[in-house]
Write a structure and sequence with these properties.
The chain is an all-alpha fold and 517 residues long. It is built from 20 helices and no strands. It is globular. The model has no long low-confidence stretch (mean pLDDT 85). Its main location: membrane.
């Protein structure tokens, strides 16, 4: 079972990583075409409406996460009838979610002129553009997207990744062709809408082929007690998700209202990169989440702690490396990519610092969130996110007044750290794993200080070549990567968990090479 979990996680990570690397490259190409053909105003509008739709997606309320938790046991026991009942219920829920997004989105239309803050009006109808965004988002829920949760919970996401890879390529090529031929934002959105529908239908057919029992009739349904328990868990998840959304999706709205919609466009380029890097990291979390659910369902707490400690060290290496690279390289990359178009596309380094700290906070608590969900402790942290999100909005207004864009992201970092992040990780590790709060804070502080130390040294080393030429950008990247990995290796080389992970990785590589030879 352990080997099966490892193998499935590795396959999922490999396929998903390939897809995401391709996505990053192609997204960059299509974004370049977008900027050169349509400009910053449309870029800002695209970012703002995407953010509004992220808020409307709260209608989903974490149903997928709750259903995944309930699927772990029947999948482990191969209880087909139970799986069919859960998926039937999930399908019905997602239809209601699609309708809710459509309805709530239309209700927001009268308030669009308060949210959009452009110096010059656009020739297209603003409300029609927004309605196409609503359709694109709601169609995802109408057209069979719910089935992907079953594949994820069963650790077999690698089976549908080739479809994601194919549609990533098709999306990029279509974007570029439409932008270059029509140079029209409406045409760009309509083609995207069609591709969303086609992609979901294709993936649904593939999942039906892999799990043919999904197309069989299902007369069973959840009992009243099961429904009550499900919605009780869903309530905890949804409260947590609402708070997370207040943190992560209101930034663009505040930027648009208080500074300007065009600035949303400038920031959206940074968000595009950090979000894609975050997706790469989340692929690791997605790949291991079903395995963690299986461990929690079948293994002792002692074994759970061993698994957590190994994963904690591995993930720290990943998200700390990503954070340092983003801080050091983002502006140098923007200088090379868009500096010749307009220097306004390059944000102040203080803004970049707070963006990267926000990235670090989000990624460093994801493993705890996986263990929280896999163990069914959905109540942990549910209200913290709400209070933190509200505090974020209240703090952002005065900080934006004094410090501009940097103030908005500083408010996000401060409110996350002190109202939700620390209580969340301490409670999860205490309740699920039995760690003391003092130990949790000591480990976090040591790792954060190590991150700051490495980042400061690299910044000073690379300062003479920062934001200069393409060749210097390559040197800057090499220095950042090599120095960070070297320091992390030296610091943790004697750590028990590091030694176990290192030896296991070396063994796997040797086995792979031996089999190839």
């Amino acid at each position: 079972m352990g080997n099966s979990r490892t193998k499935n996680s590795a396959l999922t990570m490999a396929m998903s990583s390939m897809r995401q690397l391709l996505t990053i490259l192609l997204t960059f190409v299509s974004r370049t075409a977008f900027i050169y053909t349509l400009g910053a105003e449309y870029l800002g509008l695209n970012g703002l409406f995407s953010n509004i739709l992220s808020i409307l997606a709260l209608s989903e309320l974490g149903i997928g996460g709750a259903i995944a938790f309930y699927l772990y046991k029947p999948l482990a026991d191969k209880d087909i009838d139970r799986i069919k009942v859960l998926m039937k219920f999930y399908h019905k829920c997602y239809n209601y979610v699609g309708l809710a997004i459509l309805g709530l989105g239309c209700c927001l239309m009268p308030f669009l002129h308060y949210l959009v803050n452009l110096e010059h009006s656009l020739p297209e109808n603003l409300y029609l553009i927004y309605f196409i965004f609503i359709l694109q988002n709601s169609c995802t829920y109408f057209f069979f997207a719910y089935k992907q949760t079953l594949v994820s919970a069963n650790q077999e996401l690698y089976k549908i990744e080739k479809y994601n890879i194919a549609f990533t390529l098709i999306n990029c090529v279509t974007d570029i062709v439409v932008l270059l031929i029509f140079r029209d934002f409406m045409a760009y959105l309509l083609f995207k809408l069609v591709l969303v529908v086609v992609k979901n239908i294709a993936i649904s057919n593939k999942i039906n082929h892999e799990y043919p029992y999904l197309t069989d009739p299902c007369d069973g349904k959840l009992t009243k007690d099961e429904m009550c328990r499900f919605f009780k868990d869903l309530c905890s998840i949804s409260i947590f998700k609402v708070g997370s959304t207040l943190f992560n999706t209101l930034s663009n709205l505040m930027i648009s209202i208080m500074i300007g919609t065009v600035v949303v466009g400038y920031y959206s380029n940074y968000f595009m990169i950090t979000s894609q890097v975050n997706v790469i990291y989340m692929l690791t979390m997605t790949a291991v989440s079903a395995g963690v659910g299986n461990v929690i369902a079948k293994e002792s707490r002692e074994h759970q702690v061993k698994i957590y400690n190994k994963l904690s060290l591995i993930t720290f290496f990943i998200y700390s490396l990503f954070t340092i690279c983003l801080f050091q390289l983002l502006n140098s990359f923007m200088h090379i990519w868009l500096g010749s178009v307009d220097n306004s596309y390059i944000l102040n380094q203080w803004v970049v610092l707070f963006i990267c700290l926000n990235f670090y906070i989000d990624t460093s608590c994801q493993l705890d969130n996986v263990f929280r969900n896999a163990s069914g402790h959905f109540k942990i942290g549910r209200y913290l996110q709400i209070w933190g999100g509200l505090f974020n909005v209240a703090l952002a207004v005065p900080l934006c007044h004094f410090y501009g864009l940097a103030g908005i992201f500083a408010a996000q970092v401060l409110s996350k750290l002190f109202t939700s992040y620390f209580p969340f990780i301490m409670n999860v590790q205490k309740v699920v794993l039995g760690f003391s709060r003092k130990m949790v804070m000591i480990v976090w502080a040591k790792r954060f200080l190590l991150l700051i130390g490495i980042g400061t040294i690299i910044w000073l080393l690379c300062l003479p070549i920062h934001e200069t030429t393409l060749l210097n950008f390559v040197f800057e990247g090499v220095i950042t990567l090599v120095f960070t990995v070297a320091v992390l290796w030296m610091v943790f080389c004697k750590d028990e968990n590091f030694v176990v992970v290192r030896d296991m990785a070396i063994s796997k590589v040797k086995t792979f090479l031996y089999n190839r030879c």
